[in-house]
Amino acid sequence: MTTLHTEKRGERTTPSFMSAYRMMWMLVTFDLPVDTKRHRAEATKFRQFLLDQGFEMSQLSNYLRLVNGQEQFETYTRRIGSRLPERGDVFIFQFTDRQYENIVRFSDQSRRTRKKNPEQIALF
What we know:
By secondary structure, the chain is of the alpha+beta class. It has helices spanning 37-52, 70-82, 97-101; strands at 2-5, 7-8, 11-12, 16-18, 23-31, 56-59, 62-68, 89-96, 105-107, 110-112, 120-122. It starts with a strand and ends with a strand. The mean pLDDT is 83.
């Protein structure tokens, strides 16, 4: 379980526990044309938009973000849909925090240890 701490008017409230099956990861992956100066600018603008929305780059065309359930997932999906570049493909995947724990990563031709999920999330 993930612990969620919140603050209310400078006071720390009682921690609440979030199910790892409710917490979801969003993976936005895309293939955008970069053959012209205009297309490169659009691709850069889209990547910057994702960063501004709290996504983290895992590879050049793959961005991840942890969201709190289906409603928040749909909110970000609508935001992304409203900022799509004119051309190219964009895919959005969702998976639970538990599924994220089972991702196997190969880097430099060797298996890397699994990345630990955050033990707690602090919201202010």
